[in-house]
Amino acid sequence: MNDGLKELTHQIMNHCYMMISHRFLIRDEIRSGKSDKEIFKKLENDYGETILYTPKFDLQTAALWLSPVLVAGAAAGVWAYSKYKQKSNVHIMALNIVRGVPLTPREKQTMLDLLSPPPPQRAASLWWRRWRSQ
């Protein structure tokens, strides 16, 4: 047997031993007349809250609980920004397409008028500012 397989076998045997000892402990607690809550509390006190597979929401586990929301929010932000940049670069892509195509000066000017982005305007007020002022 190689060392990796020996280590895996050892870990499985330890895990099985712990499961069997926990079963005996729980069985003894039930026989002594303790309620489920008392048994859970004893297990949590003896082995920590990870034994219950349901960590509580507190300051220590906040990052664990909120990380999926943060990752999804960051992904949505990156996607929205890429869509915004794609829309704002349409005129550049169109100019690159017609590069090398012979156009009359009037056609070039018409194309530039149609494809050039409008001049920057004053930043529009955000929806929450408009809502707050009502």
From TrEMBL:
User: Please, which domain of life does this record's source organism belong to?
Assistant: Eukaryota
Asked if the Swiss-Prot or TrEMBL record annotates the protein with the keyword GTP-binding, the reply is no
CcmH/CycL/Ccl2/NrfF N-terminal domain mapped to chain residues: 23-113
Keyword set, alphabetical order: Heme, Iron, Membrane, Metal-binding, Mitochondrion, Mitochondrion inner membrane, Transmembrane, Transmembrane helix
Name a GO CC annotation attached to this entry: mitochondrial inner membrane
> Where can this protein be found?
Mitochondrion inner membrane
Instruction: Report the GO molecular function annotations.
Output: metal ion binding
- rRNA-binding in keyword set: no
> Can you tell me where the transmembrane regions are?
62-81
UniProt lists the family membership as follows: Belongs to the CcmH/CycL/Ccl2/NrfF family.
Q: Which PANTHER family match?
A: CYTOCHROME C-TYPE BIOGENESIS CCMH-LIKE MITOCHONDRIAL PROTEIN, PTHR47601
Q: What is this protein called?
A: Cytochrome c-type biogenesis protein
Which organism is this entry from? Cucurbita maxima (Pumpkin)
